[in-house]
Amino acid sequence: MLKFQNKVILVTGSGTGIGQTVAKLFAENGASIIILGRRKEPLEETKKILDEIISRVKSNAKVWLFSGVDVSDETGVSQMFDSLKNSNVSVDVVVNNAGVSGPVTCFSNAPLEEFKSTVAIHLTGTFWTSTQALKVMKPGAKIVTISTFFTEERPFEQRPYRFRSPYTASQGAKNRLAEAMSWELAEKGIVSIATNPGPVHSDRIYKTVYPKAAAEFLRTSGFEDLTPSEVEAANKEIVGLLGENEQTVKDGIAKAASAVAKMKNGDAEKIAQTLARLLAKIQEIAEKVQKNTSFMIADRQFLSQMQVAQTVMTLADDDIAKILNGKVIPGDRVFYPVKPHITTSAPQVHQPDFASQVFVFTIDATDKGDAERAAFLAQHVEKNGGKAVCLISNETSKENQELISSKFHSHTVNLKSPEEIQRWLNAAKNIGKISAVVHITGKVPQDIKIIDLSRKRWDDLVDKFVNTPATVLQSAFEMFVPGGSKDPRLYKDASGTAVIIGPDMPSGAKISGSDRARVEVFRGALRPFATTVNQELSDVLKSKVRSFLVLPGGVDGKESDNAKITQALNYFVTDTARRSSEITFCVDETRE
Predict the structure, then answer these.
(1) What are the tens digits of pLDDT across the range 356-379?
(2) Last residue of a domain, which of 294, 310, 332?
(3) How confident is residue 153, by pLDDT bands cut at 50, 70 and 90?
(4) Which residue has the higher pLDDT, 289 or 141?
(5) How far is CA 154 from the centre of its chain?
(6) What backbone torsions phi and psi does residue 148 show, to the nearest 5 degrees?
(7) How far is residue 266's CA from residue 452's CA, in Å, rounded to a whole number?
């Protein structure tokens, strides 16, 4: 009998690439396959391939095809699993593979809707597919999530992945989500594992990610006599020409040159020559990035898609899955020399005089403790000569709003609206120079189980702990560097401090592993996000603007100490902090 005879495997994003290869390997081993994705044509081609395999191995397996299913779409995913349930189909393995590149650009230039869409596909798609799949899963079933190596490899190591902030945020959270689900699914006898395969040979990385990253390097400084905006307009037209025949490239460059010529009222023929050199430079940098990455691998080889599929199939083995339940494996094959981005408490500095300085606090309080923290920090600023302006989320309870607004200059604001945040930040500039924008996320509710959450409750959590902090940060950057999103050259030597505080680790004497893992989903999103954004600010934009992350509370369940956060704030506004690579501070943890 074939290894997966009479088993049913569901693979998201299975029309092409890794997903298709995973589906093919399971079919070779006797499984019936459920394939799904957004585009019908590649899925139909995959089904044809799978039907041929099934016929050849004589497994009598089946293939179910669900086209037009975007894993981030609540209705589409729910209806698919309802259909399977009504047909009495039981799923043995779910492979969370679907993904997109997302915007490959500096965070300050990334459209927020594209940021949110990337998070929705990678993170929410994994959550919703996994929890809806429970309708058709029995004890012994497995959920295998494919994530990325550009997240945490070790507890205090964090890898930035510049130009990929929404991707790294959602991938970091996916790793922690796989761990959290393993705790909650144990009573159902269902296993949850994640795998970070490292660099993989794929059209996406060669034709999209590396070339777009190279193009972004060139956009940030401009190219020859082209401004960043002109380079960006050209890149949209010419990056896709890499690998095409000579005539296609020539025609594409001519079209792009015509568009740029209108922007700058220039000579289209001369601009075409410049764009030809730009495209050659993009290819050169992309190839260099690929080569440099390979030199960090022992055998200098990226994995093949089949090797990733073999890893997934190994993890779906009954005995292996039980051993590795809740783990994120394998440890990545790439050796990156990583700076110490994560640390514990901030260095003590002489108390700064905040006279003539304004600190803007954006507050998304979950409970009274969050509101008290905001008041404590605001009081610290004003006690030392500064002015605190508090922008309180309109979703904060009236009681907690009053706790803050009764003591400080405050406004109730929709923190999901970048336009509204920007308006209030500009108003705050009338009070004085804004030295720091400090966002308080609030705590993750402890009365929940992830696998039981409604889609609305989940979306609210993702907004609160991922999308809203990103919205506030991007608004703060635009306030510190007006026009910098379109002309990144303006960032050079500009200064400013943006801080995200939270969410806290749960406190108390009887904190379970499940409680900690649940909070880590969202802390796991913010760590790679903050690290990636900061590397763009320092290494690419040559800026003194910085984003810091404070994660209060400790693994031992002790209460967080707000005084340690004020110590961190004092440090964050110093030149020393802006020169350091340490940007995530676990202020209540102790490490020898």
Answers:
(1) 999 999 999 999 999 999 999 999
(2) 294
(3) low
(4) 141
(5) 18
(6) -125, 160
(7) 59
- Which of 46, 83, 44, 57 is closest to 3 using CA atoms? 57
Whether residue 18 lies inside any domain: the answer is no
Angle between helices 125-133 and 74-86 (to 10 degrees): 20
Domain count, the chain: 2
pLDDT band for position 540 (cuts 50, 70, 90): very high
Residue 1: both structure tokens together: 């009998």
Same domain, 365 and 270: no
Express each pLDDT in 497-534 by its tens digit.
999 999 999 998 889 999 999 999 999 999 999 999 99
Indicate left, alpha or beta for 145 from its phi (over 0: left) and psi (-120 to 50: alpha): beta
- On whether the CB atoms of residues 404 and 378 are closer than 8 A, the answer is yes
pTM over 0.70: yes
Identify whether residues 241 and 390 lie together within a single domain.
Answer: no
Asked if the structure places residue 437 within a domain, the reply is: yes
The type of residue at 92 is D
- Structural domain including 381 reads 353-585
In what helix (H) or strand (E) does residue 455 lie, and over which residues does it extend? helix 455-462
Identify the burial level of 291 via C-beta atoms within 10 angstroms of its C-beta, where 0-12 means exposed, 13-18 middle and 19 or more buried. Answer: exposed
- Helix and strand numbers (H, E) in the chain are 21, 15
Q: What is the strand order of the sheet 32-37 is part of?
A: 63-67, 32-37, 8-12, 93-96, 142-146, 191-195, 328-329
Beta carbons within 10 angstroms of residue 1's beta carbon: 7
CA distance 575 to 572: 8
Are 470 and 557 contained in the same domain?
yes
Amino acid at 146: I
> What pLDDT sits at residue 351?
93
b/e burial code for range 244-258 (CB count within 10 A of at least 16 → b): eeeeebeebbebbbe
Residue 219 lies in a domain: yes
Same domain, 278 and 388: no
Rounded CA-CA distance 393/412 in Å is: 6
How many CA atoms within 13 Å lie on the side-chain side of 309? 21
Q: Which of 294, 315, 330 is the last residue of a domain?
A: 294
46 occurs within a structural domain: no
Residues, the chain, total? Answer: 592
CA distance 130 to 418: 31
* Phi, psi for 36 (deg, rounded to 5): -155, 160
Q: Residue 9 pairs with which residues in a beta bridge?
A: 33, 93
Separation in Å, CA 174 to CA 13, 279, 441: 16, 35, 19
